[in-house]
Design a protein that fits this description.
39% helix; 6 helices; ATP-binding; Cyt_trans-like; PPAT; alpha/beta; EC 2.7.7.3; 5 strands; ATP binding; five-stranded parallel beta sheet
């Protein structure tokens, strides 16, 4: 059984993340979305909220029934080993992402040679998109419908106490 792990902050999850989830899930028997609990970052949403958002999104998509969502902390390779994942999935939006992601992938492979990293280039329509862009737009009450799955739009606005018809 091939298990893949797609780690990230997902603060909040975007349509770009969802695109990679759909594409990566087609290549493994189980895809685990690992929501990072990173004490160095101050996320907008708690790890529990981010897990719940992703679960809400995948719940009504039968093609994602083999996708699981969990929060985790610590070293990624340790978590991957615990989950028996042999593939780490990462997304690349631009060339600038590659240098950083390659360094992390090589370090992870050095720590555990049984784990490989698979890079997915972002679909063109999401190449500019990031969670920080979504947070910025939402904080000013801008329209985020074209950036995040509809299941979480109101939750993002609620976090900023923005009143907007969805």
């Amino acid at each position: 059984m091939k298990i893949g792990l797609y780690p990230g902050s997902f603060d909040p999850i975007t349509l770009g993340h969802l695109d990679i989830i759909v594409r990566a899930s087609g290549l493994v028997d189980t895809l685990i979305i690992g929501v990072l609990k990173n004490n160095a970052k101050k996320p907008l949403f708690t790890a529990e909220e981010r897990v719940e958002f992703i679960e809400r999104i995948i719940k009504n998509r039968p093609e994602l029934s083999h996708v699981k969502v969990e929060a985790f902390g610590g070293l990624l390779v340790d978590y991957a080993k615990q989950k028996q994942a042999s593939i780490i999935v990462r997304g690349l939006r631009a060339v600038t992402d590659f240098e950083y992601e390659l360094q992390i992938a090589q370090t992870n492979h050095k720590l555990d040679p049984t784990i490989d990293t698979m890079f997915f280039t972002t679909s063109v329509e999401y190449s500019y998109l990031s969670s920080s862009v979504v947070r910025e737009i939402a904080s000013f009450g801008g329209d985020i419908r074209q950036f995040v799955p509809e299941e979480i739009i109101q939750s993002v606005y609620d976090k900023y106490n923005v009143i907007r018809s969805v």
